[in-house]
Design brief:
By secondary structure, the chain is of the alpha+beta class. Helices cover about 45% and strands about 10% of the residues. It is globular and about 80 Å long.
């Protein structure tokens, strides 16, 4: 074959022009037969997502709409916008609004929702587009048409309250008719009355809410539902305009925002809806972090500007330099810089310990940097106030890799537990390797001096006590630990690491990895038995499979996914040719005939979207890889990591499951 011929060969896995033409013809025939659902899928195969959206709207099938929406999202905002505009021109207002909103065309989405008779969605979209007044008008028009729609009256009150229109919010809420909807709105009415200074009236309303056992935990002022408290352009708590979402965990959402009153950047940390649902413990932990920060004022601790009980939310100092975890992934540290970061963390801990606060979760992601590179300690959510020797279990508080031996055993944590964590941070910055407790308070292998020519046995001897398995062998407090680190000079040279990590051969495991994993204590459902091991460091099962260059990029992207329903990439080593993956949890869907519920399908689709957003795919979306857990569903890693696939293939497989 000539090079000219090969230039016209289709890419492997991609449909040829003939296949595309056949798919489009098939779509046309199915459309003529009024099989709009089948026609939509044929249009997707024919690379015509806008046509697919039109046909999906005609089908009116939610699963098909979801598949087409995800396919358009993969194409990008322009495809979503084109499809949304096309649907709006044809009168499919609701689906048009959904696509336009996802594309970022919020005002157009608001208009589409309004014309489609969905004023509440219209109001939210207008608000995200920076036109809350248009959102209020949409709700008011709907209320003129249906004066008994109290759920819209509450939506109007929430919108007005978010934008400081407190009197209007009170007026809207007072017009609600007696009934369940008004009862649910009582806490909102009480807050609105307080905002305009009517404290006696607010107290009466609060008493009524208490008598009726009304739960106020869902009062989260946001421009979206409580699981997504803000999107770009939304205004939180009437003051903080969201720039972007920074971090999302099962416990909290963190946003970069602009304080419109103080004219400064801030980070807004909002307790997640899922965490609120777990009961009072989550709220108390969140409140505990706020109390801890409010009692601490120190240049190496991330400051708190405000605590909003109604969220609840914390408004924190903006740290533009990212986290230590980010730096550790891309940089080699000069020993002097590593010690500087460790000392700053110790200074923060010294201040906290002085007022009776243990941090208990010092780790790289909790050390942040401002715009000039100053390290500051953050996230006191695991902190304990008032008792310097509280007992906690390893699974509940802290992150295992940086957790002291006594915490891992579920014993009492103390000041020296925090010092161990700083030692683990410093060791990893110096060597690039995770730290392990030292039984003799001395390095018998892998000392820091083996990784940098300017480090000596004296440096090893200074760091070793930090990592002592016996807490009494560690420095007694953070100030003493700082003095110990400052007692010797640390090199300012950044050099390629020369220790064990750089001398590994491709067929030899890194130090201690060969002995780190043992046969699993629990084989689960047996589906991963050939690749299942127990990691003695993290004390959990892991799936270990061969890794090659062909799959490296795919799982490098996968490692960016932090979705709780997606198996995490725990370790990827090209030198060892190994990929470590989170082992499945729950019960495999293939072991029962029970179908997935709509909430579970939504969670699974969201999990797939998280993979597609970072440019990768799953490739094996079937009942053998989906597990049902107490929290919903869990998507196990593909058992054949070399299997070809695409995001579109995932969506088709999802439809078969649905």
């Amino acid at each position: 074959m000539t090079s000219r011929d090969s230039a016209h060969e289709p890419v492997e896995g991609e449909p040829s022009s003939v296949d595309v033409a056949r798919a489009l013809e098939h779509a046309r025939l199915l459309e003529e037969a009024c099989d709009f659902r089948g026609a939509a899928h044929a249009a997707l195969q024919g690379r015509a997502p806008v046509l697919a959206a039109r046909l999906a709207a005609l089908a009116g099938d939610e699963a098909t709409l979801g598949i087409v929406e995800e396919a358009l999202a993969i194409e990008g905002p322009d495809a979503l916008s084109r499809a949304g505009a096309d649907l709006a021109a044809r009168g499919h207002w609701s689906f048009a609004g959904r696509l336009l909103e996802r594309s970022g065309a919020f005002v157009d989405a608001g208009n589409a929702y309004a014309k489609g008779g969905e004023p509440a969605l219209a109001a939210l979209a207008f608000e995200q587009g920076g036109k809350p007044a248009e959102g209020a008008k949409a709700l008011e028009r709907a209320l003129r048409d249906d004066a008994q729609a109290d759920h819209l009256r509450r939506a109007l009150a929430e919108l007005l309250l978010r934008h400081g229109k407190n009197e209007g919010a009170v007026k809207a809420l007072q017009q609600m008719r007696p009934g369940a909807e008004r009862d649910r709105a009582l806490p909102l009415l009480a807050r609105s009355l307080k905002a305009i200074g009517l404290f006696e009236a607010a107290a009466q309303v609060e008493a009524e809410a208490q008598d009726k056992a009304v739960d106020s935990s869902d009062l989260v002022p946001s421009s979206r539902d409580s699981s997504k408290p803000g999107e770009p352009g939304a205004v939180l708590f009437g003051r903080y305009e969201v720039v972007r979402e920074l971090k999302k965990t099962p416990h909290a959402h963190v946003f970069e925002a602009t304080d419109r009153l103080a004219a400064r950047k801030v980070a807004v940390k909002v307790l997640a809806a899922s965490a609120r649902g777990t009961g009072r413990d989550a709220f108390l932990r969140f409140e505990r972090e706020a109390r801890a920060l409010q009692s601490l004022r120190h240049p190496t601790i991330v400051g708190i500007y405000d605590f909003v009980p109604d969220g609840p939310a914390m408004v924190l100092e903006w740290m533009s330099g990212g986290s230590l975890a980010d730096l550790m992934r891309r940089e080699v540290f000069a020993p002097a810089r590593a010690v500087e970061i460790a000392n700053a963390t110790l200074a923060a801990l010294a201040q906290a310990h002085t007022v009776g606060i243990l941090h208990r979760d010092v780790k790289p992601s909790n050390v942040l940097f401002d715009d000039i590179g100053t390290p500051k300690l953050s996230d006191f959510g695991a902190a304990h106030l008032g008792d310097m020797s509280t007992t906690v279990t390893a699974g509940a508080i802290g992150t295992f890799s940086y957790m002291s031996p006594e915490q891992r055993r579920g014993q009492a944590a103390g000041v020296r537990s925090d010092i161990y964590a700083v030692g683990a941070l410093l060791y990893e910055m110096l060597t690039g390797e995770p730290a392990e407790p030292l039984k003799e308070a001395a390095f018998l292998e892998r000392p820091p001096s083996a990784y940098h020519v300017d480090l000596t046995e004296r440096h090893d001897a200074i760091l070793a006590p930090f990592l002592a398995e016996d807490a009494l062998a560690r420095p007694p407090d953070a100030s003493s630990a700082r003095k110990l680190l400052e007692s010797v000079r640390w090199s300012a040279r950044v050099l390629p690491r020369e220790g064990p990590a750089s001398r590994r051969s491709s067929n030899r495991p890194p130090p201690n990895v060969a002995t780190r994993v043992v046969p699993p204590l629990d084989v689960g459902d047996g589906r991963d038995l050939d690749h299942l091991f127990f990691d003695t460091v993290t004390e959990r099962n892991v799936v270990i499979v061969p890794l090659d260059e062909a799959s490296l990029e795919r799982f490098r992207a996968w490692s960016k996914v932090l979705h709780p329903s997606v198996a995490a990439v725990l370790r990827a080593s090209t030198s060892d040719a190994e990929l470590w993956l989170e082992s499945p949890r729950g019960r495999c869907l293939a072991d029962s005939d029970e179908p997935l519920s709509p909430p579970e399908l939504g969670q699974l689709r969201d999990a797939l979207s998280s993979l597609h957003r970072v440019g990768t795919f799953h490739g094996s979306v079937d009942r053998e890889h989906v597990y049902r857990t107490d929290d919903g569903v869990f998507l196990a890693s593909p058992r054949d990591i070399h299997k070809a696939g695409s995001a579109i293939d995932d969506l088709r497989a999802f439809e078969r499951l649905a």
